[in-house]
Amino acid sequence: MAKVGIVMGSDSDLPVMGKAADILEELGVEYEMTIISAHREPDVFFEYAKSAESRGFKVIIAGAGMAAHLPGMCAAIFPMPVIGVPMHTTSLGGRDSLYSIVQMPSGIPVATVAINGGANAGILAAKILATSDPELLDRLKAYSEKMKQQVEKKAERLAETGYKNY
Questions:
Q1: Ramachandran angles phi, psi of 146, nearest 5°
Q2: Measuring CA to CA, which residue among 37, 44, 73, 107 is closest to residue 60?
């Protein structure tokens, strides 16, 4: 049963939201991904958000651009954590999306990652789940160690080759 729902308003969001899915796959977290427009298919959206808990979701990652209502509306309906991913937009560079997601009214929190921060949304969802899953916590620790080793290798390469030959 999927523990994380990943929802986006458009297929143009897929390159960013796919990074959340990639992280969850790497960490062994089951997820379900879909596209729903809160504005164009409100009935479908409400059913998704209302049924998410009974379908086993513990966290929803919702990506949206421009007016970015999808994450906030998920948070208004779904009783567990919602992580908002603001999408980069051509008109305002994603600031419109960011402000729409981060400025929720009191009582309707949405954890918000950086503009186009799909990977961090996946990591944050896994960290939320890891509070009650010691095996997932171990996988997260191993993931962090892997990232540390990647940086160390890059530093060694830079030291060996120099800036101009890197």
A1: -60, -45
A2: 73
